[in-house]
Amino acid sequence: MAAVSVAEAQEKLDELIDRVARGETVEIVRDGEPVATLRAPERKPEPARRKEPVDLERLKAIRDQMPVQTESAGEFMRKVRDGERY
């Protein structure tokens, strides 16, 4: 672990952040006593992906129950833009 003074940390913060991003830990000291430690955050594991296949027939059944959109996307967006949303 590298140790740097507060003054040096202020001057070279960008460089210290780059070092930490590469996996180093940097200790900041004042009058020889540690006052802060810079280290990269712990990475959270990615969530597990869904292993079962998507049931397409069930999705189609849900879609078939939805009402048909009567206006075009352009008309809808014009209404939103022109203030109908308020």
Automatic annotation (TrEMBL):
Coiled-coil regions listed in the entry: none
Record function comment: Antitoxin component of a type II toxin-antitoxin (TA) system.
Similarity remark: Belongs to the phD/YefM antitoxin family.
Name of the protein in its database record: Antitoxin
Gene3D superfamilies for this protein: YefM-like domain
